[in-house]
Amino acid sequence: MAHFQTDTNYYLNPAAPGRFEGQVPDLPVEGEVPHHLKGAFFRIQPDPLFPRMTEEDVYFNGDGLLARFDFDNGQVRFTQRYVETDKLKLEKAAGRALFGRYRNPLTDDASVEGKIRGTGNTNPFVHGGTLYALKEDSPAIVMDPWTLETKGYTDFGGRMKGQTFSAHPKIDPVTGNMVSFGYGSSGPLTTDCTYMEVSPQGELLKEVWFKAPYYCMMHDFGVTQDYVIFPIAPMVSSWERLQANKPHFGFDKTLPVYLGVMPRQGDAKDIRWFKAPNQNACHVFNAWNEGTKIFFDVPVSRGNGLHFFPDLDGSPFNPMEALALPTRWIVDYASTGDEFKKVTRLSSMGGEFPRIDDRFQTFRHHHAWWLVADPSKPFTKGCGPGFANIGYKNMTNGYESVWWAGEEYHLQEPCFVPRSKDAPEGDGYLIVLADNLVANLTELVILDALAVEKGPVARVKLPFRLRSGLHGNWVDASQMPAA
């Protein structure tokens, strides 16, 4: 029988699989959880249920293990279940792994040829009372937001013809629509992409097809009231890479960056592609437009920011070039040239996993938070120097602050929670999971969003460690369907 190889990077703490399904009814709290917080924090982690077919692989190649933290009257309850994908069901029936390396169907067992390889492990997203488990290389998976039971993949009543649905949809606060996209829409490594909008009732309103300048990891995008923005950065792949059993993606230093801008009421013929020199970008703070001028805020690094997807030319990983700095790209849809109009650095605090007050998506935001990497801070041997800080910036007056979790900690993506549904922008809390890599335990930390430097309002203690996750979202109790 196969066993997890704990002496490989893929399975070392904090990358060791957790595989816990169940519920903890009342988590202990240090401090006080605000009693007016009523709702659920959904988050997800890649967590392989079975030992993989190869010892070395990228961390992302794990089954989606979805958790819900329920907040009510100062108490927090924890529930976690696997996303029962087609892949996981097949492996459970076989009692072993059948799917090979990350996004490489050439390494799969012959018995699963042609099956959907999606893991549903990147982002849990609630829209119109429906919980979606999302992974960008496959369709969206529908789950019950209360029981976390998996209902299966959706093509939105047969209207979605593309094969993929982004892990980073946005909600238009005016229409209530979920705005999303797909890449590799007609199959792996293809340049075909789709832009979609889904109503609060779950109806797919549009699916616009277009082609990207080249195939790449188009992980996130931007939405304004009038435009959608598609960033094309040179984290690329090819069938030759997969045949050589290399990591799916690699960074190409020779390619430019593109920013595709499409009017939301337009189609492929209306896209304009703006171009900038080689650099890298992954996650997006937000985007908005003032007339035809588009503002796109994103952490940008000079070079490859992902060490597990090495440079195509074999260059060693460069941590200084990998550091992503919050940046504002500005382009004008009505301009005659194809160059970026302006590039502005927003902060010298480098990091990733940017968040805003999501109620203000598509409009100009005035507050932003992100995980900060600060190698000048001390860290316990074997624990860093990773993301142990949360940075905050007031985009109006330039004020910045930071909270350092401590030398034993690694922080997961933060999530903003408004103090109330009608609270001013930024008035609320940040929720962030803090992994103590010495005690091997995870805490849910609650911070005052506009005063992160003051430290936690409360620490909610889990009795075990959660594997480092990818994304999470807060859902107010009023937005949850009847149980």
Mean pLDDT: 95
- Quaternary organisation of the protein chains: single chain
| Computed structural class | mainly beta
Percentage of helical residues? under 10%
SS field, number of helical segments: 3
Q: How many runs of DSSP E, i.e. beta strands?
A: 34
- Beta percentage is 35-45%
- What are the segments in which pLDDT stays under 50 over at least 5 consecutive residues? none
What is the 3D shape? globular
For the termini, the CA-CA separation is 41 Å
Sheet of most strands: 6 strands, antiparallel
Radius of gyration: 21 Å
Question: In words, what does this structure look like?
Answer:
With 483 residues, the protein is mainly β. It has a domain at 354-466. Helices cover 4% and strands 38% of the residues. It contains 3 helices and 34 strands. The strands form 8 sheets. Strands 2, 29, 30, 31, 32 and 33 form a 6-stranded antiparallel beta sheet that branches. Strands 1-5-4-3-34 form a 5-stranded antiparallel beta sheet, with no helix packed on it. Strand 27 (387-394) and strand 28 (400-404) form a beta hairpin. The radius of gyration is 21 Å and the shape is globular. The protein starts with 21 loop residues before the first strand and ends in a 7-residue tail after the last strand.
